[in-house]
Amino acid sequence: MTKLAEEFQVVSEEKAFDLNHRRIINFNIGRYDTAVKRGLSPFANLENSKRKAHVVKWKVMENLDKFLPEFEANFQRRGGKVIWANDAEEARREILNIIRKANAKTVIKAKSMTTEELHLNSFLEEHGIESLESDLGEYIVQLLGQRPYHIVTPAMHLSKEDIAKLFHEKFGMDINSTPEQITLKARELLREKYTKADVGITGANFLIADSGSIAVTENEGNARLCTTFPKIHIAIAGIEKMIPSIADLDLFWPLLSTHGTGQNLTVYNTIMSGPRQEGETDGPEEMYVILLDNGRTNLLAQKDLRQGLYCIRCGACLNACPIYKNIGGHTYETTYSGPIGSIITPHLRGMEEFKHLSYASSLCGKCSEVCPVKIDIHKMLLLNRRDSVKEGLTTTSERIGWKGWKTGMLKRSKMDMVGGKMKNWIMKNFFRKSWGKHREMPEVAQKSFSRQWTESNPE
Questions:
Q1: What is the chain's percent helix, strand, coil content, to nearest 5?
Q2: Residue 434: pLDDT band by 50, 70, 90 thresholds?
Q3: Contact yes or no for 279/55 (Cβ under 8 A)
Q4: What percent of the chain clears pLDDT 70, i.e. is strictly above it?
Q5: What are the residues facing 409 on neighbouring strands?
Q6: Does the pLDDT of residue 395 top 90, yes or no?
Q7: What is the CATH number of domain 42-294?
């Protein structure tokens, strides 16, 4: 077992029995569930919309080699610049080069999971560049020195009392401040940062091939400010964010918003197609899009697993997952947590270190059921388990154990060779620890059902 897997088990147990943590998460996810139920009601045929989205993303992944150059050509036609980054290190280096070339010292950021993937804030700070999150949830976790807890709601693990205490300690606010007062204070603190920042950095919810545009979805308007005031705008997007046409947004925007927050449509939806054009009054003088691979082509190369790249980052599978609701987002030690993180992380960051995430599932299938693009998430968890075995990443004791189980299960007489007393001794001495200290070890009957049946029905 790797160090990460051992830590995962320890932290999982701590979080699962942290009643305050569970109270906060259950409250927040409960509100989400209510909103989503209401948000999905206007769909005339939700299942049909999900199937259509699945087919569009299938088409993109099967033809990514055509859509990416199409996006690049159309974006460059309007004065934008495209940078291809093979991995996180290359992406960070390119971003630093842009910032240094402009002699910039301050960066304002919109919410972006790809920048979290790059650990961009800490990297820029190491090089003397101030990088500030402008999304309220991201700003809160940045003040705490934490990673985002959830793909959509970064501060989901905090109660309003926790956040009031943070603002009291950092800014001297009343410890009993209301959410409205906290939001106004954050707005006051951030507003001047937009006008003074040299560079604005965002992600991209979608890359649009036929128009050479990026689409950014948000609820606070901070991403618009990040891309309006600074002279340079850098957008960082995984290559899987591609959709064929601007016309596809009428399908993907509602699916993203309803499954992400329960809204019919998010408050701000912006399409950007390059730097400021002649006659325009605002916008950046330079705009870059960094197309990030960082392990995505590893997943693309595997036909039965590339569905993982269909994800539109709505977070619905996290909110549905009984494991996530018990152990929380930080336990995964990955950028992408929950079921979707469990299937893509082993391919993005290495199967050996992260194969344990594919076992952190009840396989109830709820994640697949709620997915707006119909990814077979629970099936892919099983495929990851299969691949980890094929790659020889299981322990010797595990291989011996399964070989013995298989031998016994294939023949009734071999199963019955060992009596109930011996089976209970084996379970007590070899499986007690893995069964867990919070559960009673099941008792095996002294005689198998087959033997009992034979004795009671001798004829």
A1: 60, 10, 30
A2: confident
A3: no
A4: 100
A5: none
A6: no
A7: 3.40.50.10420
